[in-house]
Amino acid sequence: MKYEYHPQRRTEQERRNLNKQILRLLQSGACEQAGVTDEDIFNRYTGDGGLHGLQRSDYENYNAFSAAKKELENGQFFTPPPLCEMIVSALRLSDTDLVADLTCGMGNFFNFLPNENNAYGCEVDPNACAVAKKLYPQARIVQGDIRDYEPQTHFDFVLGNPPFHLRWIMPDATVMTSHQYYCLKAAKLLKPLGILAVIVPASFLADSFSDKSAIRMMESRFSFLGQVMLPEHAFSDSGVDDFPTKLQFWQKKSTAVEWAPKRYSTDCADIYIPSGYPVMAATALYEKLVMVAKADLAGNRNRVFLELAQLKTTKSTFLYQVKKYLYQIRSHPATREKYDACFAYVHRFYTQRQPADMPYEEWQRVQLTEAKVLAYLKQALCRQNAKPERDEIRLVKQKYSFVYKAYSRKMAKLLTDEMRTPVPIHQAVLNDEPERFPGYERLLRRKRREYDNQEQPFSEMAENAQLADWIDRFQYWDAQNHAYIHLNPLQSHDVNLTLQKRYAFLQWEQGSGKTPAAIFTGKYRWDAGLVHSIWVISSAISIRNNWDVILKGTGFSYVFVERLADLQRIRRGDFVILTLNKVSQYKKQIGRYIKQLGYKIQFIFDESDNISNPSSKQTLSVLSCFRRCKYKLLTTGTSTRNNISEFAPQLELLYNNSINMISWCRTLYSYDKRSEYMEHKENPYYGMPIPAYKKGYRLFANSHLPEKISVFGVGQRNQDIYNADELDRLLGKTVITRTFEEVTGKDIRRIHQMPIPFLPEEREVYNIVLKEFYRIQREYYSSTGNSRKDALMRLIQQITLLLRISAAPDCMKEYEGETPLKEMAVVEALARWPEEVVAIGVRHTTVLDRYAAAIREYLPDRPLFVVTGSTVTFAKRRALRDVLRDSQNGILLCTQQSLPSSVNFEFVNKIIIPEMHYNNAGMSQFYMRFVRYTSTEKKDLYFPIYIGSLESNLMQMVLAKEKLTMFMKGQDADMDEIYAKFGVDYDLLSTLMTRETDDEGHLRIRWGEQKIA
């Protein structure tokens, strides 16, 4: 200990006067003449914390008061010396340990270090920094912002008490609290296995749900050692009483040492820390939290040194490289003249300071770094092999732009501002003036031809005679149906048009022949010598039950990639089939393989709506591997299910954010979350390609449909399609849409609504969930262990339970009646069709069990086949097709998701859906298994719906989404047409439920004309 501590509680005015006096003496250098010793300064200077002098009553609210207070104090509350002594004692530091405090204040931690020479500190406040430098002259203390602190070394320990709850904007525009940033900065400066001891607010990482992202951020860098609560009055000398804080210990991860990092826990260690003399707890802290980690640090010095050397971030390594480069530059005649400029550049690196008027984010962008210095020197050294300068200015292509380049210093002076300004390649193509870009005329003409071709609306294109002749002649054998496959005239027409473009999207309804169209497309590209192979990806059930089966029967050479070794079996002309899971698993290897082929493949994505979620692992993997392919064909029955924004990832995959997907929408739309009003603003990307990933998805959503449709939000916000003309133009050149009726020439679908009234017992259990959900919630849903997360899930769980009751009321324990009326209605319908094969599709196994029990009870003689995805394999589902057909009156009871694609039962004419999906696209994936190209008889679809239940809302949501889906299919239908298509009348929709808030702010659900709390 360098200075003895003499605690004394002082008033705010006494603290303020002592601070001013000490600072005045330091500035004048008159401390010795005034008889003020360093130990006096240590005991009397207390900093700005608690001296703001503001009154809560002078501010409109506490937030404004708190913001003003933080601005004056800047989080400056010095750590009390007893706490500093306790923390340093708990770590048991040695003379050789390098120790840093990244917001050191007046340096209280340094008072207890064994070696002041190995102490490093940073402090933004010049007054506190002056005090620290006076008290600890041997320590390496700098005045500056922690965000700018680069000490050029790594530390064994970082100790600190950072400012709390200051909101700092990072260079990537994210906002982070000051104490969280302190921990991340410590991770950057610590040696591997180095230890961080930090005082933080008790609320920091206190909730494993709301703080999940911050906890993950810490766990990615550290192993958690433990934490302990500090005394409530620990900072009372600084004017802060009863502010809960805690002490955390973390150990930086190491890649060189084999050890298992510990996960974070919100629990605090059971260690008592006395208020008066906390150093008594140091031994317990060391033995319970620090001892093992410190032993790891001490026992792996050599490995840690090697790890640091590999990082090439130590000052000695950097200096060695700088000296080597400077020596070589000065030694070679061709680079000697560059020596003075290079030396000045290195000197500038060491002496650079952030200008006072420059924002931190700007400084992070322009400041010199070690990497920049080494790159500068290396570039200068490469001049020894440089070609001699020539007096020439040429137009060159750099990344995605054209720019003029001077090949000598003399000619560089002749470059005008216009010549220095890059011209994006897409703009050069749009301008269609290739003569303005000498040397690149041929490239621009080719790109313009491709652009004009891709921009043609399919509706204005004519068939290509050569393609038509090839399509008429080509056929392949279908072993399943023992017939040769040809395309009908409409299918041939559409395939002809898509083959005239490099990128196309076939949106044919299920059962319309997308698979044959894709096979014809792939075989033509190969026969024309345009591709190396044909790659097909889709969901696992589609690949295994459809593509693998079909290609096996055609006799075409194909490779089913199930392991990495299968990539080596691919030969020219092969079909290559992969599941989406394998694309995600082997993303790097597949991407590298396709790059080696020069991206010269025909890429086919069957059921492309599987990447409608832009954040999913599948979407990112598919984009990473296939977005640069030369030829692409996407096929699906419906490109969107819930909202138009789901089309954006598929559009990005098809066009790769190129000139073919330029944003021509002048106005963007977004809803203000705090109100129901829509905001308008100009599009900053107008005339530019839609950017990649999240920026592009957000731009696409704000261009056309800024809000999703929810169960309770169908009528609350305008669901119009914005910038519809631009979206229609984009769809016109990209997508060919056909309904099942168009392709087959058959109008065989009939949809029937079956309104069913609630029986009293059914209404009773339904009302229990509406009125008493809090009471029964725990009987059906287990707690997550986090009250905040449970509260967020409550409404979703209530909606789910209401819909499940609407499907089968007897799945509830509270139901006391006989077989529910909806189940009886289904059973009676089955009884009316004694010689028919019937399919029933539900969504949950609980509901499936209730219908299975009812059918077995009332129709024991009918064959019943129960299918779920978890109990019946793909092979058994395929085999079931023949068994069901041979039964002649069997009942197929299944979950809808167990038959989503590629398992077809075209002989089934009666389909009942007692439990609806959230969109028609999801349900059509099921019922179109029975409505097929080869079907000849009428298909009847029945939707039994409880009148006055949440199912009415669900049906309305399905219809509203269908309007958007039909627009994406080029069919601008009004709601009356959609009601007629689905057989819905207005009496059914008059029972809609809405979510409202009463005058007291309580949530209420309005159902029909009643209000139910």
Automatic annotation (TrEMBL):
This is Methyltransferase. Keywords: Methyltransferase, Transferase. The lineage of its organism: Bacteria, Bacillati, Bacillota, Clostridia, Eubacteriales. Residues 495-657 form the Helicase ATP-binding domain. GO terms for biological process: methylation. One of its GO terms (molecular function) is methyltransferase activity. It holds the Pfam family MTS. Transmembrane segments: none annotated.
